[in-house]
Structure formats: C-alpha cells, structure tokens
Amino acid sequence: MIKFMLNGRGVETEAPSTTRLLDLLRDEFGLIGSKEGCGEGECGACNVLVENRVQNSCLIPIGAMEGLDVQTIEGYCETPRYQVLNECYSTAGGVQCGFCTPGMIIATEALLSKNPQPTEEEIREGISGNLCRCTGYNMIVDAIQLASKKGEGLW
Ligand code: FES
Ligand code: FES
Question: Domains, the chain, ranges and CATH?
C-alpha cells in the first residue's frame, strides 16, 4: 500500500507501485484536470506539484510518492492564487481550447512562487516545459505578467 498527501488530505492506494501517477489521479481518484498529451514528459499537460515542485505526472511511478505532498489543479483551484490566475488568463485570452491550461496554471504557480515578479524572459523559461497549440504563447505570457501585478503580495 502506498500512502501520500493529495490536495491536503491523506490517501492510500493498493495500485501497483509502477502505476503512473497520472493514471492513478485520473482513474482511481477521478481527478481529470491533469491531462495526457504526450505521455513522454514533453508537453506539461499532466503537470502536478509534488512538494511544491512541478512534475510531469506521466513520468512518475506512484511508488516514488510515498509520504509526499501532491497537489493537482483541483486542489490548487481552492486557493486565492488560483482565483487571480483564472481571472488574468481569461482577461489576457490565455485560455483557448483549454487542454494545456491546467498544466500551464501549475507551471505558473511554480514560477511565481519562486519569482513573484518575473521578466518576460523568465516567464518564457518558466513555461518552457509546457506546449500550447492554440495561443502562440504571447497571451499566456501576458496573463502571467498581469497576474504578477494583480496578485502582488500573494506570491
Ligand atoms: Fe506528461 Fe506530456 S503528458 S508531459
Ligand atoms: Fe489549446 Fe493551449 S489553449 S493547447
């Protein structure tokens, strides 16, 4: 049995330790905000925070999660920081089809929590692990710049 913290509560699973974290989240816990894009660590659609660091959940076997703290987009949605990001992504047009958005939001949280006032270059670097087919990235960069102003003091 593997036990870890998931969105602030203790969970346990009997799934094999080699099960991908992404599959466990979606199939056992019904947390379908994390998406499978590439399945190879290239697109960031499956991003979650593990101990407050961005990880591709498609690459992590759940055996590595024992005792750790995992936050998915569903847990993050409950935070005031998310409210700011949600508003700024909407305002800037950073959400189009939405497939990349949960992973992008998680990457944004990780970026702003380390660097609340990033430069444009630092923003582009911060989201470089995330692919978006729709926005051309500029609107996402705008959204993050806006969030770093509007959310001043939150990060
Ligand atoms: Fe995990 Fe693309 S699905 S990085
Ligand atoms: Fe469609 Fe990013 S909004 S992939």
Answer: 2-76 (3.10.20.30), 80-150 (1.10.150.120)
pLDDT value at position 38?
Answer: 98
Whether residue 58 has its Cβ less than 6 Å from ligand 1: yes
Q: Mean pLDDT throughout 71-84?
A: 98
Distance 101 CA to ligand 2 centre (A): 7
What mean pLDDT is reported for the chain?
97
For the residues of 59-97, what is the DSSP string, one character each?
Answer: T-BGGGGTT-EEE-HHHHTTSHHHHHHHHHHHHHT--SS
